[in-house]
Amino acid sequence: MRKCVVALLTFLLVLPATPVAYADAYHARPKLVVILVIDQLRGDLLERYRDDFTTANGFNLFFKRGAYFSGCYYDYNNTKTAPGHATIGTGAYTDGHGIGSNEWWDLGRNTDRVISSVEDERYRLVGTFDDLPVPPPGVIPPAAPRIGSSPINLRASTLGDEVRMATHGEAKLYGVSLKDRASILPAGQTANGAFWIDQATGRFVTSTYYMKELPGWATAFNRGPRIAQAVKESGLDETTQFYSLVGRTPAANSYELDFAKTLIENEKLGQGKVTDVISVSLSANDILGHQLGPDSDAQHEMLLGLDRDLNTFFTALDKSVGLANVTVAFTADHGIAPVPRESARLGIASASLDLELLTEDLNKTLNAKFSPGMDVKYFLPTQELPNLALNWPKFPAGVTEREAEQVVVEAMPAAIRRLGGPELPPNNNATPEATRKYLESREDAGPSLYFLRSRVDLAEGKVPNTEFGRRVSHSWSDHGGWYVMVVPTAFQMETFSGIQTTHYSPWSYDRHVPMAFFGVDFVPGYYREAVAPVDIAVTLASVLGVNAPSASVGHVLTQALRRVKVEEAR
Ligand SMILES: [Zn+2]
User: Fold this and answer.
1) Could you tell me the distance, in angstroms and rounded to a whole number, from the CA of residue 40 to the centre of ligand 1?
2) If 0-12 CB within 10 Å is exposed, 13-18 middle and 19+ buried, where does residue 233 land?
3) Alpha-carbon distance 40 to 281, whole Å?
4) Which residue in 6, 74, 224, 463 has a CA-CA distance of 20 to 30 Å to 124?
5) Half-sphere exposure of 466 (CA within 13 A, CB side)
6) Residue 39 C-alpha to ligand 1 middle, in angstroms?
7) Distance CA 506, CA 101 (A)
8) Residue 534 C-alpha to ligand 1 middle, in angstroms?
9) 350 Cβ neighbours under 8 A, 6+ residues apart
10) pLDDT greater than 70 at residue 550
11) CB atoms < 10 A from the CB of 296, how many?
């Protein structure tokens, strides 16, 4: 008996000194988790340019020293920024985390415009130029404080939230991006701070949801030379459109990574007794990708610049925290379609749909049915595929949502046929009218519709019992009023002014993203099996020994995890 007690006491005394190699959040193993998101990066692009990445700590951190997954696809259709970032943080799809799109119509909150997924009238922005004695040139201060942002619509916990809860709030949690939604959503509800930029000036801001004023180091960053340096590096002398003009250049990535580095140093991330978490979402790729397409030389240049900037960032992190103490998860929020004109040139049935013409056509049918002889605008003014939103208060009393949406559903196939077929005219600058005439003249013009559903049917779960149907279910949220979901066949999108391509669809080019892990728990290698971004938060939760996020549906990627030996286990 005494021997047993002595043995037990010896064991207990020896235990804390025994080097434990496996990770757990409670002992700061690792000290810091970095969730690195590239906004809009299709899964094939890094492989296409892989030979060009020459730095040690850039993309090669994942290709040569990490576990790289080439077959990572979102298993839902909401391939947009806000839902994608929420999915990365929560390990859930829209039906779990609640974020269905970047913005949507909510006539209960605003009848003039769509509301954003993170805007929140209860809070106000912090750190705009209000604290400067003189606003930057060309910037007119707003009359009232601008509406703040928060994870108001996020209905699930994130990995970071779980680490915060598991450590009684001792762990630190931050988000950084040029975009509010991409900063707020992957971090979660319990973040100590989330920072994004004021689009005019490039200054990093936050919201009273997190803090009443910016930390001193952030104010110093905003007042220092870094903004002017980014503007200069982007080829401009000065600008009042930082987001769109500097944001589309590689200078925006180094600017953002410098802010993240400053945050990590000043908030002492990776210096505590438990694991800290930061998500960094780099937006420049997306801003440029929309304008010029994924296959442009400029996008290639962007990725080469990003490789160098990531190398600088992770090399600095190696000096401050030590890469041996850091785990990195790397992915993107969505892919991107090729520019329709370019895929059409190679013979792919591609098209741009003019949503204004389409809704005008459908509106005639709605007027004929509900208000003969009148011209009521039954569609709301801002439309985005796939959900065409109806101005429901305009319908005559007694018309139900089901009736109204059913009329649209029945009229849609013919209305889309009247828009024209799947080919594009050779000149992408043609007017919509010229485009329509050209399409009408083509013999092979045909319907380009793939899937159509009223909101009431979606709410009742009426989706096909197929892979596609499952993705529709994963994409469900109850946000928005009356609408009809319209999914065109692949390589088709709405027409835009100023941009050439987008992402919003269930097609693989929008769902395919890179995914990789770096850290002591991961076995370096190239993994080809089918995985999904929902696996990231769940895998990290397993590694850290915390609960998987509340709505998570991902799987632990055991194939890439180092086996913990019996003697390592506590
Ligand atoms: Zn985008």
Assistant:
1) 6
2) middle
3) 10
4) 224
5) 5
6) 7
7) 14
8) 20
9) 338, 340, 341, 343, 344, 422, 423, 424, 491, 492
10) yes
11) 17
Q: Would you place residue 434 in the very low, low, confident or very high pLDDT band (cuts 50, 70, 90)?
A: low
Query: Cα(396) to centroid of ligand 1, in Å?
Result: 37
Q: What is the pLDDT of residues 6-15, one digit of tens each?
A: 555 544 444 4
| CB neighbours of residue 136 within 10 Å | 17
The pLDDT of residue 3: 58
For residue 442, pLDDT beyond 60:
no
Q: pLDDT digit string (tens) for 170-199?
A: 999 999 999 999 999 999 999 999 999 999
User: What's the pLDDT at 330?
Assistant: 98
Taking the centre of ligand 1 as the mean of its atom positions, its distance from the CA of residue 384, in whole angstroms, is: 13
Question: How many Å lie between the centroid of ligand 1 and the Cα of residue 365?
Answer: 33
Distance of CA 132 to the CA centre of its chain: 32
Q: Which helix (H) or strand (E) is 5 found in, with range?
A: helix 2-14
Residue appearing with tokens 């728990």: 521
Question: What pLDDT score was predicted for residue 366?
Answer: 98
The Cα 260–Cα 193 span in angstroms is 12
Write down the pLDDT at residue 426. 47
Q: What does the pLDDT look like over 555-565, one tens digit per residue?
A: 999 999 998 77
Ligand 1 centroid distance, CA of 232 (Å)? 25
- What average pLDDT score do residues 357-363 get? 96
Angle formed at CA 228 by CA 222 and CA 229, multiple of 5 degrees: 105
Q: Is the pLDDT of residue 445 over 90?
A: no
Per residue in 252-283, pLDDT tens?
A: 999 999 999 999 999 999 999 999 999 999 99
User: CA 484, CA 328: separation in Å to the nearest integer?
Assistant: 40
Distance from the alpha carbon of residue 250 to the mean position of ligand 1, in angstroms: 16
Ligand 1 centroid from CA 366, angstroms? 32
For residue 242, the 8-state DSSP code is: I
Please tell me the distance between residue 17's alpha carbon and the centre of ligand 1 in angstroms: 49
Calculate the CA 249 to chain-centre distance.
Answer: 19
User: Ligand 1 mean position to 503 CA, how many Å?
Assistant: 6
Strand partners, 493: 352
Which distant-in-sequence residues (6+ apart) come within 8 Å of 517 by Cβ?
62, 66, 67, 327, 328, 329, 330, 539, 557, 560
Distance (angstroms) between ligand 1 centre and the Cα of 513 equals: 13
| Residue 336 CA, ligand 1 centroid: distance in Å | 8
Q: Rounded to the nearest whole angstrom, what is the distance from the C-alpha of residue 89 to the centroid of ligand 1?
A: 18
